[in-house]
Amino acid sequence: MTAPRIEADLDKVEQNTRILVDRLAVAGIRVTGVTKAVLGSPAVAAAMLRGGACGLGDSRVPNLARLAGLGTSRTLIRSPMLSQVGRVVLVSDISLNTEAVVLAALDRAAFRERRTHGIILMIELGDLREGIAVADVPEAVRAVLGHPSLRLVGLGGNLACQNGVVPDDRNMGVLSGLVDATEGLHGITLDVVSGGNSANLDWAFGSHDVGRVDQLRLGEAILLGVDPLYRTPIVGLHTDAFTLTAEVIEVAVKPVRPWGDRAQAAFGEAPVRTGAGTVRQAILALGHQDVALDGLRPPAGITVLGMSSDHLVVDLGDHAVAVGDEIDFGVDYGALLRAMTSPFVTTIEQRGPATARTMRQRGGHDDAEPGPRTGTGIR
């Protein structure tokens, strides 16, 4: 089988979505499934929808285009680029916005296409990424309401992504208060109060009152089953829906420590290797072009020693591994995103062991068949 590759268990994605949808429904919160970490995969998106997601979101216009035909609302979750407003109104029903000049351009583009484009205004709640200052919200609302081809769908916020600010009753309360004030001032009812992303789950599950928040945009929690604030598993969710597999291209016993004068390595300062004696070392055909090193989780007993552009070096420990064998790795969000967007990593998407697999080919062979797994993560 082609390597390196990402294998996605679509049933686990669906199950994770369903559990989160059901738990959040108790608080009156709906789920928009976010597909940006999987390159806007239609198969993963469909699994989210089967699990009960009310719509889909992505940060990239080409990814949203790939999701056409799934019969659900699509939201651009990054502020639109002025250069792309024409495409934005074609591939998305809603976009998250902060800039008056972009709103005006979206209005003109939507008018040309004889469409009405939905707007969620993003509010700055402390994380210092995108967001309108609280004092400027009334003016921004008036701007949207003044554009005939735009519709104010709601208000939203985003926390934890830039500076790790934790969603809590205080900042979510600010958002809810703005929604009440906006509706009262303009005599309107907002359809969506988009409280944030997967980092909001701890707050949503623990809060007795989520206020006006009625939607979360969930990617990492659905895909990897973890809480982004602390990267801890969420009870009841699968944390292994995605597996990265790489092939061994060299196995040798080598000294633990390098020798000779040393300077910087290919990607800056080389990791310090301590100890004495030898190590049974393997090289895998996987590099920085394919995945984020810090996000790899090797099988128990195998230690990552370093990575260059095209080579991953590991200490095999007691594992019996030969050239041509494959080793499976778990991935975190950054590693998943990098692997899914690498042209050198093949993606295999499957629904359970008894159903046919579908492969999105980006460098492998269409006739590849899955090989047997072992319990050790080595094939």
UniProtKB/TrEMBL annotation:
Domain Alanine racemase N-terminal per the UniProt entry, residue ranges: 9-222
Pfam families noted in UniProt: Ala_racemase_N
Region Disordered, residue ranges: 351-379
Protein name: Alanine/ornithine racemase family PLP-dependent enzyme
Organism: Pseudonocardia abyssalis
